[in-house]
Fold:
Amino acid sequence: MSTQRTLDRTGDLCSMAELLAVARQDLGPASGSARLETELLLSMSTGSSRATLLTYPERTVSVECAALFRSAIKRRAGGEPLAYITGEKEFYALQLRVSPDVLVPRADTELLVDTALQYLLAEPHASVLDLGTGSGAIALALKQQCPSAQVTAIDSDAAALAVARDNARRLGLDVRFVASHWFEALGDERFGLIVGNPPYVPSGDPHFAGPLKFEPSVALDGGSDGLDAYRAIFTAARRHLTAPARLLLEHGFNQRAALLELAVALGFEMERVYEDLAGTPRAAVFRATQA
Structure:
């Protein structure tokens, strides 16, 4: 029996347990955590906590809430990220609002925050720039962990900036947001640390037709070789770094060698490299070489 048929039974109300059981079956192929996701989606659809769902599984669900749940399950089964359906995603212990205007924050990117905080321990009052902030995840996490830092976040997309500003307002974090295509709107401003998770997926990557199709391509597409954003950043970053400032960037799993070559050609050297918890090359710290 499919979720659709269960929820559409004329004049019948379903229990929470029944809805969850059938939805897990339908969601299984699209999710590695169908149990958790169905509970989160039913909680969202009914306004009940997950604890209530598990404590009172016999409770019936109204027709209206069942319809919301059916729609949510259909979206998730079609591959849409859970965060876009629920409208929120946790990142570095912050509950962020997200929309299809911004990239869904990844747990892997928390490595960028961890690494940046190592530098901020030595310079807690440093001025920090977050490149292409999206939902504001990196900038807000840094400000929350290091309140004395002066954090600026830029993005070229007005809709993304609206999401980031809303997150900052809700969380009570004082981050300055600027509409800018990379450094263009920053004049001669300089920063003690620049961090960023630029678009680095090559344009022809098949994932754009699969799991990435729901997310904004402007936040993912790095050009034919995935390095276009890095070229723009390395070309301009020197003018916005205060010596001995660092440039900290996330990168693709197979891009480190090409990124080092590009950095050297544009006046930077790779100082340190970092792997994520799976041992995958994930981030690198750069510093400007002598002019």
